[in-house]
Amino acid sequence: MTRPLTDDQIRERVNRLCEQVAEGKTLRQIAVDMGLSVGTLLGHVSGSPYSEQYARAREAASDLFEADIITEAEAVTPENAAAARVKIDALKWVAGKRSPKKYGDRIQQEHSGKIQIQDMTDDELDRRIAQLVSGGEG
């Protein structure tokens, strides 16, 4: 039976994990490198004092991907444009997943039509609901 890890051992693992995540490596690559399962690595950071450190490492990797995108875009030639587009799109997608507030797609909702804000009695509300259900405007 194996002994449970000490806090220092867990901290060491998390530091290595976060360092490699910040360098842009995938969890699978890191797990292989460390000789551990992805589940074990995630277990160290999920709902733990280290979850914030892990989140910051993921955001740092997104900034690396931003630099990679710029480098790739600057190196595009007519011969490699299609391949570069695929690579850039993949990097943009990963950056958006790792740091959605900074690199994710923004969703904008628009409302058209009147907005009525007023106090109504129960009878007025019932009449308005009946009017809307019957297809009347108002």
Reconstruct the topology from this structure:
Layout lengths: L6 H16 L4 H8 L3 H8 L5 H24 L6 H18 L1 H4 L18 H12 L5
Describe this structure in words.
This protein is mainly α and 138 residues long. It has a domain at 7-101: Arc Repressor Mutant, subunit A (Orthogonal Bundle), CATH 1.10.10.60. 65% of the residues lie in helices and 0% in strands. The chain has seven helices and no strands. It has helices spanning 7-22, 27-34, 38-45, 51-74, 81-98, 100-103, 122-133. Helix 1 (7-22) packs parallel to helix 4 and helix 4 (51-74) runs antiparallel to helix 5 (81-98). The longest helix is centred in the middle third of the chain and has 24 residues, at 51-74. The termini are far apart. The mean pLDDT is 89. InterPro entries: Sf6_terminase.
How many DSSP helices?
7
Query: Rg from C-alpha positions?
Result: 25 Å
Helix content: 55-70%
Q: Return the CATH architecture of the domain at 7-101.
A: Orthogonal Bundle
- The CATH class label of the domain at 7-101 is Mainly Alpha
Query: What fold name stands as the CATH topology of the domain at 7-101?
Result: Arc Repressor Mutant, subunit A
Order of helices and strands: HHHHHHH
Number of strands: 0
User: What is the overall shape?
Assistant: flat
